[in-house]
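Moderator note: this is an archived Q&A kept for reference. The question asked for a predicted structure of one protein chain; the sequence and the answer are reproduced below.
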Amino acid sequence: METRAPFLIVGAFVLAAIAAVFGFVYWLHNTGGLGARSTYHVQFNGPVPGLLVGAGVLFNGIHVGEVTELGLAPDNPRRVNATISVTATTPMRADTKVGLDFQGLTGVPVIALEGGTQLTAPEVMPILVAEPGAGQSMTQAARDALRRVDAVLSENAEPLHSTITNLQVFAEGLAKNTPRIDGILTGVERMTGGGPPAPPKTMFDLRAPDSFALPNAVLKRQLVIPEPTAEVMFDTQRLLVTPTGKDYPGFADAQWADSIPKLLQAKLVQSFENFDIAHAPLRGQEGGEGGNASQLLIDIRNFAVAAEPQPVAEITFSARIVDKSGRVVAARLFSERRPLEALTPAAAFAAFNGAFGAAATSLVGWVAAAN
């Protein structure tokens, strides 16, 4: 019995010391602490998931105290009453905002206080009421948001389906027209000065005939050749190929030295000069339309390559000799066709030269005879 007594005393002392330590820690983290404390009452109009007695109280993010008491309001089943103990130096005011914050990866709840605009504390501190939804956790907020999104999607299911279908049709259209869109963007880029410079185009010119089987004929009537008239499609420098809308390799990079009407005017004047330079017609801008000279009016009917069924270069134009009074003295239609050895710009150039040489020779002979 005497040997056991010291062990019982030692054991009791150790247990008492442990209980004192736990009590001190509990007091320090809950109702005690170092320094003076002030107690305030807080109300939450909704659930406060996970909030426990001993949870921390933060003021503007700084730990200032703990929750000392939690309970349900007897007069309102949705309300939760809480009592907090904070340091006496905490600037609590009547407009202090109350909320619930969740800290750490596990989302430990704490009461979060935020300072208001009042500078002095009231004589009697009112109960601080948290804003509606202050106790809502991030999980609950996410669920509510998902519910609202689901409701919106349910109400607009048919318009959304129609929109997605239209987007699919639009995407398919873009995929089918990708080459055209690339071409349009390339053209816009070139127009705005961006992108690589366009390669220089190959220039082609007509050759005026210089030999005629009319040794004794001369031009007696003074003529003026104004710029020929033509449809808009012929007022261009491009080598035209029909039918249009197809890709003819090489023709996009080739062009005439001038627009077709001006080129035809210049080469016809040169043809007359090669025949009789002393009496050759003048160009329209050199004078004579309103004077004593007659006019040789040219109207272009065709100046293109017909690619089908066999490639052929065709030049067709009408000619009228009109005197100074406006009377038509003579009129004739000239048309020449030459086959192409291949559907290439060089072969087209050679065929056009052959067709123009024959048409210009016939025109010079006709005008000489009409004189």
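Archived answer notes: Residues 286-290 have pLDDT under 50 and may be disordered.
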